[in-house]
């Protein structure tokens, strides 16, 4: 792969700091048109910067939405953008966020301290300030402490997955093993993925998780990223803008045995996508109001559908799920109107926990207890659910694992005195 000098003003072919020229391709059309930067990880790695910062910088400069944590190394900017123009912007990024202000050496460390961003030059020792008025500076300041935490949880998740699957890796990225900082995390996270049929859902939930994790972008970046316009057209347009692979994975593809066919999967996707976007723009799923969620579901005409609960279980919680259940209780109660709804809700929960948040698996008993105590899912449905694993929502090993984790709760339920005892169906 041809490389170019990191410093554009240096033409010396022996200049030691090189990077690949940005390679991009435009995909899709109409509202869904987007630019995939194929080798962003490699370029960012050459700059010793997280790819997320680089793509975010592009997003700010172009006023376009980007992703910042793709699990498949597909770095995307909405809209069609020429590689040469992106290369120009990259030059701007390098000048502002990489090169030492004194000696212009690119070997600098980014030090964030006391609300300042400092480039610490390894060549000359100069410490120069990054302009804090730049939007990316705001983004960086907001995202400092996340890293360690995230890495840890990802590692845990990775271990759990590896254990569970014997570590068979597949569907990892697009054939170019990236080597950037956060990218290597992402690539690792794909290791030990689930069986191919469950892979797509897993990928989705992982993305949801990724989106939820980058929540802090948005106090600063809000305007650029997910402006919340709730008109139906706007929502549809936004759903269009999402990467295709995200778009399709939200929901449930099982057959409609119940005549809900009039609502294609895309309607559910719209809801899920909207929730993710709105949560992101509000700085966290906890900040997204029940009423807004309900109104959106209603606007899409699916507030009464059982599958809606599958979407909700996958989107309205994060690591704080146990506490969040009781906060969401009244909305959920309003929307869970039959056993079918309860089962769909449990199914979504199984995906959320089993596929994407394996670190939450030990909390399954608490989660189920909260469902039970908040009267969201009946004893009978819980017992039936616990009685056998199912591949309806996740693949069997995951399903078994979740149920196994549920054991203490199920035992407790078995022994608990309850008025519902007689309606038990096992
Ligand atoms: Zn220097």
What's the total count of β strands? 8
Biggest pleated-sheet summary: 3 strands, antiparallel
Ions and ligands: zinc ion
Judging by the overall fold, what is the CATH architecture of the largest domain?
A: Alpha Horseshoe
How many H/I helices?
A: 19
Biggest sheet: strand arrangement: 3-4-5
Q: Which H/E pattern describes the elements?
A: EEEEHHEHEEEHHHHHHHHHHHHHHHH
Mean pLDDT: 77
Rg for CA atoms: 23 Å
Describe this structure in words.
The chain has 426 residues and is mostly helical. The protein has helices spanning 40-46, 51-62, 83-97, 135-142, 146-165, 181-190, 196-213, 218-221, 232-241, 244-247, 265-281, 290-299, 306-315, 321-327, 329-335, 339-356, 364-373, 379-387, 396-415, and strands at 3-5, 18-20, 24-27, 34-37, 75-78, 108-113, 116-121, 127-129. The chain has 19 helices and eight strands. The strands form three sheets. The chain has a three-stranded antiparallel beta sheet, covered by helices on one side. A three-stranded antiparallel beta sheet has the order 6-7-8. Strand 3 (24-27) and strand 4 (34-37) form a beta hairpin. The longest helix has 20 residues, at 146-165. The model is unreliable at 146-158, 160-205, 211-231, 238-262 and 419-426 (pLDDT under 50). The chain binds zinc ion (ZN). Residues 100, 102-103, 105, 121, 123-124, 126 line the site of zinc ion (ZN). GO terms for molecular function: eukaryotic initiation factor eIF2 binding; GDP-dissociation inhibitor activity; GTP binding; translation initiation factor activity. Keywords: GTP-binding, Initiation factor, Nucleotide-binding, Protein biosynthesis.
